[in-house]
Design brief:
This protein is of the alpha/beta class. The protein has helices at about 25-40, 50-65, 80-85, 105-110, 115-130, 150-160, 175-190, 210-220, 240-250, 265-275, 295-305, 330-340, 350-365, 370-385, 425-435, 480-495, and strands spanning about 5, 5-10, 40-45, 70-75, 95-100, 135-140, 165-170, 200-205, 225, 255, 325, 365-370, 390-395, 400-410, 410-420, 440-450, 455-465, 470-475. The protein folds into four domains: about 5-275, TIM Barrel, CATH 3.20.20.70; about 290-320, no CATH class; about 325-380; about 385-495, Alpha-isopropylmalate synthase LeuA, regulatory domain (Double Stranded RNA Binding Domain), CATH 3.30.160. The strands form five sheets. The chain has an eight-stranded parallel β-barrel with strand order 2-3-4-5-6-7-8-9, surrounded by eight helices. The chain binds zinc ion (ZN).
């Protein structure tokens, strides 16, 4: 009989804690819809107490999801749990995920609590969470550096208090596969009521072992894996969803997940696009080179029989080459259908606006690809939430450039100009003059995202506003326009996220 493994996706919580990966609330909703369609089991939508933005986006995701459990993180504190419960109140299937640190170094220096205080807080938190919600997950933060006997003690007590899922995080990415497997086996054997809970792992990738550690835990009896799309997350990131799912799929047919693997490539692309974090070309499963065979001897083998050098097929993860989708003669219904296929549900008046933008783009380029449509939607989001680009002009001579930019915010338009060292520099300086926000570009790249001479140029950048760093991505057939829009998308994240507090689990 196949054993089910629950896929707990934390892209929107731990993944969003990647430096520079902040997502807006509408972007989170779009990703949540894609994750639901891809059939993950649980979506950790955020950390409700951390900011009003996080609270609202968990609330919005909760009210829309049907086929997936929505989860909020909460420290083992009353106010955190109340906030999580509030944000999840509209969810059809909900889970509160509460945690406290159990390692000596965390208890002594961070919490300044004794073992018995930690147990008492954990039990209290689980009981309180159960008053709001039938499904409660408890995490022992830094479990892999905790005393095993103490872990047994606290886990047994929180199961008795009503926790149905016990998560054993390798918070600092310190463990290795054999150790992780043994720890799970030890807990399953030595916690008296272990049969009353599902054991879970949450592995970080500091030593590049997150996927291996997670698989080892599953082989030892863990039945939930916490992971993120593209392996996003704190520091070196979390175990990558696509690696876990495909490794189980290819090597462990006795283990079963619900995930529709054919959606993997698309969701990976969408998350990369929205967070501005590029997937490395040699990344397992979703990297641009993951299925590219360069060496002559490999190509020869591939032509004779794909299995000579291929352990999974590109189509298994949904890579089938970019397909032509829409063009100049496509109507509103075709656009709406395409948007639905891409996971966007668009209200009628918004569709009209998008359709106008779509027609303008279709006049400029003949073939409109999925990526073009996603870029249009992102532009539309920028219009509602922050500074919107109304117009720009730039004059460039060998001695320098002058840029003039007009932006709109809250119904008012503002124009500013600046001189700079080249066209991009001058228009971005003009944006600074208008917005009154000084930013410093810490990274900037332009590449072509669609094919042909009329290709859209995609600009990816990161900008530091004081201590806060945000990524911005945009695309246009004009790279100066794409640069301004990418910069505005980073700036608008700053506008939207004024109070970000983040913790590690
Ligand atoms: Zn984590």
């Amino acid at each position: 009989m196949k054993k089910n493994v629950t896929i707990f996706d934390t892209t929107l919580r731990d993944g969003e804690q990647s430096p520079g990966a902040s997502l807006s609330s509408p972007q989170k909703l779009i990703i949540a819809r894609e994750l639901e369609k891809m059939k993950v089991d649980v979506i950790e939508a955020g950390f409700a107490i951390s900011s009003p933005d996080d609270f609202k986006s968990i609330e919005r995701i909760s009210s829309v999801m049907k086929d997936v459990t929505v989860c909020s993180l909460a420290r083992a504190m009353e106010k955190d749990i109340a906030a999580a419960a509030g944000a999840l109140s509209k969810a059809r299937h909900k889970r509160i995920h509460t945690f406290i640190a159990t390692s000596p170094v965390h208890m002594k220096y961070k919490l300044r609590m004794s073992k018995s205080d930690v147990i008492a807080s954990a039990v209290r938190a689980v009981k309180l969470s159960r008053q709001y919600c039938d499904e409660v997950e408890f995490s022992c933060e830094d479990a892999t550096r905790s005393d095993k006997k103490f872990l047994c003690e606290i886990v047994e007590k929180v199961i008795s208090a009503g926790a149905g899922i016990i998560n054993i995080p390798d918070t600092v990415g310190y463990s290795y596969p054999e150790e992780m497997g043994k720890l799970i086996s030890y807990l399953l054997e030595n916690v008296k009521n272990s049969h009353k809970a599902v054991f879970s792992v949450h592995c970080h990738n500091d030593l590049g072992l997150a996927t291996a550690n997670s698989l080892s835990a599953v082989l030892a009896g863990a039945r939930q894996v916490e992971c993120t799309v593209n392996g996003l997350g704190e520091r070196a990131g979390n175990a990558a969803l696509e690696e876990i799912v495909m490794a189980l799929n290819v090597r462990f047919p006795q283990m079963k997940t619900r995930v529709n693997t054919r959606a993997i490539a698309r969701v990976s692309g969408m998350v990369s696009h929205m967070t501005g974090i590029v997937v490395q070309p040699n990344k397992a499963v979703v990297g641009a080179n993951a299925f590219a065979h360069e060496a002559g001897i490999h190509q020869d083998g591939m032509l004779k029989k794909a299995q000579t050098y291929e352990i999974m097929r590109p189509e298994d993860v949904g890579i089938s080459g970019t397909q032509f989708v829409l063009g100049k003669h496509s109507g509103r219904a075709a656009l709406d259908k395409k948007l639905n296929e891409l996971g966007f549900q668009v209200e009628k008046d918004k569709l009209n606006g998008l359709f106008t933008d779509f027609k303008k783009l279709a006049d400029k380029k003949k073939k409109i690809y999925d990526e073009d449509i996603i870029a249009l939607i992102e532009k539309d989001m920028g219009k509602r939430d922050g500074f919107e680009l109304k117009n720009f002009e730039v004059h460039t001579t060998p001695s320098g450039s002058k840029g003039v930019v007009t932006l709109k915010k809250g119904g008012k338009t503002f124009t500013g100009s600046a001189s700079g060292d080249g066209p991009v520099d001058s228009v971005l300086k003009a944006v600074e003059t208008v917005s009154g926000r000084e930013g410093k570009l810490t990274d900037y790249s332009v590449k072509s995202i669609t094919v042909g001479k009329d290709a859209q140029g995609e600009v990816r950048l990161t900008a530091a506003f004081g201590k806060k760093v945000f990524a911005g991505v945009s695309s246009s057939t004009d790279i100066i326009e794409a640069s301004i829009l990418a910069y505005l998308s980073a700036l608008n994240k700053l506008e939207m996220q004024k109070c970000l507090k983040k913790v590690k689990v």
